[in-house]
Structures are given as structure tokens and as C-alpha cells.
Structures
1.
Amino acid sequence: MFKISLKKKINQIIGSKKTREEMFEELEELLILSDISADRVERILNKVKKRIKLIFDRDEFFQVLKEELLLIFTGTGGPDGDKHQSGMHFPDTKNAILIVGINGSGKTTTAAKLAYRYRQQGLKVLLSAADTFRAAGSSQLVMWGEKLDIPVVGGDRGADPGSVVYNSMNSLMNRDYDLLIVDTAGRVQTRETLMMELEKLTRIIKKFSPAQPAETLLVVDATMGQNTLDQARRFKAFSGISGIILAKADGTAKGGTIINILDELNIPVKFAGFGESEADLTEFSEKDFIDSLLGE
Ligand code: GDP
């Protein structure tokens, strides 16, 4: 899944006959060059230093580093909760998924990928274009719907997203559908308006079933810089977020940004997107990710 490995470079550092202090300095540099933020690298390596004996061997080092990296995920329920994390929680026979995130993160594409995935699994899927702020927001999803032959409940530009969601839930409940996937707007000026918007949509969905939405998924661009990450953090304030989808994971040459995102947002990652077509979505396993980062 991920084609990033630091193993060779770490081996070179550990294999060199340098002092322990020099080795740790080089390791620090390597991890920072892999785009893990400097304070995070310091935190991780300080813990590794404490656990590693004066003269350490390779296997022990990799084991300890792996454990410390995996600890980043404990706040998300992993790494032991791996299965639980990647799995989706569908409490009812008819379920709704709310897709949220900033514009450009890959929301609409991800909504289409999920629709395709669950349709492949035999569910009757309905898409909902509640991104009525942008002219392109709704039409893009409609185009996906045509391509995948999946119906889309649309909203004209400027229409009330609440009414689009209401109509969509109505169709889900009263027609022959199993799953509704709602693409929401990413354009929000303040955290307050964002919260109000998400809470309103959630409230409308809950009127149909208190166990819904089954999942509220935050789409995060895996190639994002700190600024975009700050914006994504706004969404974290909305307590309803049940998972992350890491879009554009194919665009990250280095694994560091993914570690930053996981550590920063501390929400389980359910899927990763690896391209622009409908099939480019994979279940995400934090353990597999770390294994590939430190593996061959
Ligand atoms: P939205 O504004 O959040 O709805 O974002 P879009 O779904 O329109 O995606 C923005 C751009 O990112 C589009 O050009 C997509 O084709 C592209 N994109 C989305 N997901 C992925 C992905 O997993 N990999 C790659 N390479 N591109 C993606």
C-alpha cells in the first residue's frame, strides 16, 4: 500500500561506527527530512533513547522505534484496535455517512469512492450533494453519479444544505436504498458557523433515526502542509467525527506527513485514497503503515 521505507537509511546510520550521540543526531535529521515535525521527532527519539541500552543492536532499535511510533495511535484506539478502526459502524439496516472536510481535500471524490465500494458490496447506495456553496460542488458529484450509475440527490447552488439532507434522508428511508453518502460543504468562515452547520445537518438526520449518521468522516489531504492541517483541526472540535479518510495518500513520497496528521488529529483512520478513480480506496491499517515505513 505505502511505498515508503526508512529501513535502509536507518540501517546505514546504526551500522556506522559513530558515537551514540552522533547516531541519534543523524536519526533525528532523517526523521525530520521525512517530514515528521521537529518537535514530534524530538519527543519520539527522547523516548527511544531512554529505552535503548548504551550499545544497542539493530533489531532492538527497530522494535523500540516501531513501538514508539505505534504509541502515537493509542489515542485513536489502535494499534490493537486495528480491525475496529478500519471497519465501518452500521447500526441500522439503512445507514447514512456524512463526509466533511475543507474544500480541495478530496471530499467529493471520496464520497464517490465510498459509494462505489459499497455498491460493489451489494448495497443500494444513494449520494447526496449537500455542498451547495460551490457551483462545482453539486455538479461534480452529479457527474460521479452518472459515471457510476448511482443516483444523486442534488441541490441547486445556494440551496439550503439542510433541505437537501432532509430530502436525501427521506429517499433513503422510504425507497429501496441501504446507504446514503452525504457530501457536505467545506467552505466555512469560522469554527462556529462550521459547528452550527454540521450540528444542524446531524440533527436533521437524527430525526429519522437517533443512531444516524452511522459515521461522520473527515477527509484529510495526506499531502497537506501545516496550514491545511490547522484548518482540518477546526473540524476536530466537532465531536461527531468518527473517523478520518486520508485522501491523496499516493501523493506523499514521505510518510512523515501522515504521522503528523495521525498524531495531531488523534482520530482513527478508516480508509486511504490512492488515486483519482473510484476504485482507488483502501482500508487503512496503522500497523501496516508503520510496518511499511520501517520494513524492507
Ligand atoms: P473536494 O473539494 O474536497 O470535494 O475535493 P475533490 O474531491 O474535488 O478533489 C480535489 C482534487 O483532488 C481532484 O482533482 C481529485 O481528483 C483529487 N483527488 C481526490 N482524491 C485523490 C487521491 O486519493 N489521490 C489523488 N492523486 N488525487 C485525488
2.
Amino acid sequence: MSAGAAPTAFDIVALRTARAGKRFGSFCHYFETTDSTNTAAQQLGREGAPEGAVVVADAQTQGRGRLGRSWSSPPFRNLYLSILLRPSIALAQAPQIALVVGAATTEAIREWIPRATLKWPNDVLIDGRKVSGTLTELEAAGDAIAFVVAGIGVNLNIGDDEFPAELRDKAVGLSTLTGTEIDRVSFADALLGRLESLYDMFLTAGFSTLRPRWEALSGLRGRRLEIDDGRQRYTGQALGLGDDGTLRLRLDDGREQTIVAGDVTVVDGYATGR
Ligand code: BTN
């Protein structure tokens, strides 16, 4: 956004129109400000809203990130979107949804910047700076899934100087790289379209079918990684993903380690995805 320009609210009517008749996004809620679109979508889930219901906000006061972090959510610049999913899968497969969402988001971002890459489990990076992250949150009913909320934050029109100081060299807005403002509705439409199609593939054929596509988007295979799973740090070479979406690492002592959750740092430079 150019300096001094009046902020423009997200055009939720245009998104509803673009998604009319589609499963994901034809039912959209909009907030100018909310605490977290994930919280709003969880509420919809408890009220019985259908799969594919979407919540978009122009600002979040308590945007949540992975691993207990917060998500910086300044008004009118970016996309803060949560979608309600009701997958008929086993609870143990639920973490794979985060990978599906990450792949869909990367593919959408590549429509603007083809060199975007996916970092396990679902961060999208460009030139090593983060453009997008996903937080999936699950509500169980006994040992079944009641619903999953996938919340996606994408830095679209935020300028470098608008990030908190500690994020300035770690995060970037897509428009900084394209040199032009990103139309947030077009982006959300592209994202929901990609997600609908990858999610359907996931439900019908399983994550193992999507694994090669995920790996091609990531460029992580063969990279040297440092992983912090909250209890322990691992260093080694990425072997790729297991069919269940876990990350396989060849440790420096030759053993293979399977990582189920954690924070990944690529230590030999970032993947280019090409
Ligand atoms: C991450 O840590 O990388 C995940 C960030 C997820 C942020 C999005 S913004 C929309 C949705 N609402 C939230 O509170 N979080 C997610």
C-alpha cells in the first residue's frame, strides 16, 4: 500500500462471488478485527457450520502461530484466513492436514512468485524469508475428529518497515517482491481453489500420493537441517518425508530419526525449490 493511502477493507462479497458454488469459501464470514480467525472458525465448528466455511479478518488482536508463538497481524495489509474442515480420517492422520495446507499455500504463492518454497511442516519462504505460516487446530470427539481449523496467515502487502524489528530480516510481504500490490481477494480465491483440490486428493488417495508433490515444492531433500522438537535438537541431512508426512533425518552419527513435530532451520542456505 502506498504511504498515506486510505486502507481498503477486504472485499468479502467479491470473495463469496468468486467462490459461489464451490465447497471451500462459498460460506465466508468477515471481521474487520477479531482476536483470532481460528477462534472464530472453531466457534463455527461447534455451531455445526459445514466443511469449507471460511473466516477472514482484516486484523487480529491475538493472532496465534505454531509452537505457542503469536502471529503479527497488522490491519488491511495481509491475509488472515481460517477454514473449517471435517475430514473423515483417523485422528492419527490429522497432522498431515497441515502439510496439505502448506502445499496448497505454496502453490498459490507460486502464481505470483514461482521461486517460493515450502519448509516442513508448512512455512512458505521466499529467499529464506517467511511469507506464510499455517496453524491447524483440532477438536476431537472421543477418538474421532469433530473438526479441524486450518488458519493461514500470508504476508501480502506489508512493507519491510511495518514488521516488528525482530522479524524484519526473517519475514517479507509478497508485494515487496513483485513490486505491485497483491489483490487480496484474488489471492484468497487462488488459495482456496488449490486447497480444495489438494484436500480432495488427500481424502481420496491419502498423503502418500501427495508426498512427491510436497517434496518438489520444498527442495528440502539433501539439505542440512537443525531441528528443535521442544525437547531435543537434532542436526542432520533431510532424507525427505515418510508416507505419513513425518520428516526423515539422517543424523550425523548415521542413525535415521523421524521427526513428528518441531521447528526446522536449514543450515546450509535456504532451499530454492528449483
Ligand atoms: C506459524 O506460526 O507459522 C503459523 C501462523 C498462522 C497464522 C494464521 S493467521 C490466520 C489464523 N488465525 C490465527 O490466529 N492464526 C492463523
